[in-house]
Automatic annotation (TrEMBL):
Keywords: Methyltransferase, S-adenosyl-L-methionine, Transferase. One of its GO terms (molecular function) is methyltransferase activity. It comes from the Bacteria. It is an enzyme of class 2 (transferase). It comes from Nostoc favosum CHAB5714. Gene3D superfamilies: Vaccinia Virus protein VP39 (3.40.50.150). One of its GO terms (biological process) is methylation. This is Class I SAM-dependent methyltransferase. Its EC number is 2.1.1.-.
Amino acid sequence: MTSVVGREIARPITPHSILVAQLQQTLKLAQENNIPVEILDSLRQGVQLAAGLDPYLDDYTTPESSALTALAQKTSIEDWSKRFSDGETVRQLEQEMLSGHLEGQTLKMFVHITKAKRILEVGMFTGYSALAMAEALPSDGQLIGCEVDPYVAQFAQACFQESPHGSKIVVEVAPALETLHKLAARKESFDLIFIDADKKEYVKYFQTILDSNLLTPDGLICVDNTLLQGQVYLPPEQRTANGEAIAQFNRIVAADPRVEQVLLPIRDGITLIRRVV
Ligand SMILES: C[S@@+](CC[C@H](N)C(=O)[O-])C[C@H]1O[C@@H](n2cnc3c(N)ncnc32)[C@H](O)[C@@H]1O
């Protein structure tokens, strides 16, 4: 489990972990008040069922490599707020951005299943998902990672050097849309594309990828955070700007006749998209 190593425990940022925290708070309130024992028992069972899921998924998913554990640990002890206030990062980054064990192993499995040789990652942060996917690439495979922040790109590259798979990763430091257009102009294409950068630009990434043939004919697009903490199905007035952007992205993908998609409730939601026409 990568979310609890290091200096600080990551705050809940998935619909399920937010639900667990909410249920635990409700149970605490119920215990402090004069609640009938049947209601308390029922609530306790609900908390047990919900709180046991994520640790169980972690326990029965293949462990991450030692290089990934080290990367996650290094990410969790970094003082991201200070890096931002000191002007070292161009935006406020946070350890919760790192996808982690379950999602990393899921992506790695997709690379094995699709036999991808060329991967594009849009939004790399400290490189956890990039390295997880690179571990599944053949020795002549390549992953291009798009990252806008030079500090975190360098942080990731230092971690890649500690892994025998790091040499498969090439980092492009620039706004992702610029990199997508540059790659399209060079007629490059990818078997697997992982989208995980600016939520407000997801629609543009998706449309650029399809319109510019950046995806190979049998290629797979994986999109992260498509549940956005549950905001996409909560009442619209409870959505942040990112929640609204993802709700709109999901509607646009669902209405696009060029693709078929499935939204998996893994972590904060991963949508798999393939081109059909
Ligand atoms: C959620 S994090 C990526 C997490 C990473 N994929 C992982 O699984 O550990 C998003 C990253 O996208 C980067 N980003 C945000 N907007 C971007 C843009 N327009 N172009 C490139 N990178 C961007 C951020 O700097 C951040 O590092």
